[in-house]
Design brief:
Layout: E1 7-8, H1 18-22, H2 34-50, E2 57-63, H3 66-77, E3 83-88, H4 91-102, E4 107-111, H5 120-129, E5 133-139, E6 141-142, E7 147-148, H6 151-160, E8 164-168, E9 185-191, E10 202-208, H7 209-213, H8 227-235, H9 245-261, H10 263-283, E11 299-303, H11 310-318, E12 322-323, E13 325-326, E14 335-339, H12 346-362
Parallel strand pairs: 1-12, 3-4, 3-5, 5-8, 8-9
Antiparallel strand pairs: 2-10, 6-7, 9-10, 11-14, 13-14
Helix pairs in contact: 2-9, 5-6, 10-12
Length: about 375
Amino acid sequence: MGDREWILLNPGPANTTATVRAALVMPDLCHREPEYFDMMRRCRAEVTRLAGCGTDWTTVLFTGSGTAAVEATICSAVPADRALLVVDNGVYGDRMLKIARAHGIPAHTVRSDIFTPVRPDEVEAALAAHPDVSHVALVHHETTTGLLNPVAEVARVAQRRGRRVIVDATSSLFGEPLDVCQEPLDFVTASANKCLQGVPGVSFVLARRSALEALRGRAPRSVYLDLHSHFATQEHDNTPFTPAVQVLHAMEQALAELAQEGLSRRVARYAENARVLREGLGRLGLEILVAPERRSNILTTFRLPSGLAYDALHDALKRRGYVIYAGQGDLRTYAFRVANMGTLTPRDMAGVVQAFAAAFAELDVPARA
């Protein structure tokens, strides 16, 4: 692999600062000593604070990818005699459905295609048709295509119908505007290695304390991913299993750097990154597959130029130091993705555009007429 530094244009792990990477190199520390619990407490409090939540919310940490936090939430939150309504318009909505089924949780779906946000009226109709549903689960930012789902509108529908909401914000928290604390959201999941700009290995659940307390005494569906056991032990300066100590130290540094940059400035930087990328690649003739009003500011799905295979484009860009991302499933045959999270700046994105122009010239992709 060597020591070459890549510009990562995949939706996490993202490029990090040298100071975040340096935080991984720390003295060895036992995870049952006060020094670890102090760090854990600081990280939990700072995630909650930066997300804009008050004392009626808290953060529960998991060692694992973002999917670990999603699975912990779904398998813990839905009572034994109730069902889940899943919004499915991408790979990660479908993953929540698979998680429910793996744990024997009855699940209903509201589906749309991967380029179309869910319609709140369809969520309302599904809730009316399925009184057994206790929670609605949806992905805020579907990195399948870079699509944003209307969390606030779905939340209003769920509130009218007396249901609670689980939001997978793995790839959007701290990168897109999101009112985490709105009713009836109870659980919002994310991970350290996306818009927080930490390194992979820690995920977390932002949760309403009342929703966590309501899980007390419930028979767990999972040993490792039981949300209440992690919450209860972390509240008492303990942990049920061995955590990723060094990764959490890097996350603490990433939280400090987010606080220094400011959440609004980070969101604005990502938005400007996306603008520079989209305008530049548009000048090269590339088509964006998600309509403007539906796009995130974090990831863009472009149609491959006619006659150009993804692997050839990927390799031409990687030779120039840039790593793009394939489409998932059938998308791979006609599209690719470019993310702009992490430490990247608008100047970096201008470099991305130049690299595409050079790659197209090398690959004999016709210039736009």
